Amino acid sequence: MFTPWLGRHFSQEGAHGGNVGIEVVAADAVAGAILAGIRRDAFRITPGIQMTLLAWLNSLVEPALARYIDWVVARARQHMRRHAQVSDTFEVSDT
């Protein structure tokens, strides 16, 4: 069961670029998953297998991704410092 907006959205051609890898979960199923999660006193409530896998993969990938981003930022800062030192020593002559 869709809301009126979702019904129009999905009826348009190419609404999701050919629906590549997209699973639509009905509102009743989401509500059921939320209630089941509350009954289980679950920390994370994820309706559907795709959301569950995404949540687990995020927990595994995020620490490595955060370290990689820190490394990229450190390299960019080093690069900026090197260029700042070069530009400080460069003198422009008016002649």
Please describe the biggest sheet, giving its number of strands, its sense, and whether it closes into a barrel: none
Low-confidence stretches: none
Q: How would you state the average pLDDT, rounded?
A: 77
Run of helices and strands: HHH
Query: What is the beta-strand fraction?
Result: under 5%
Number of domains: 2
Computed Rg: 25 Å
Strand segment count: 0
Roughly how much helix do the residues carry, as a percent range?
Answer: 55-70%
Question: What is the rounded distance between the termini?
Answer: 77 Å
What's the total helix number? 3
Q: What is the multimeric organization of the chains shown?
A: single chain
Structural class: mainly alpha
Globular, elongated, flat, extended or rod-shaped: what is the shape? Answer: elongated
Q: If you had to describe this structure to a student in words, what would you say it looks like?
A:
- It is a single chain.
- The chain is an all-alpha fold and 95 residues long.
- It contains three helices and no strands.
- It starts with a helix and ends in a 6-residue tail after the last helix.
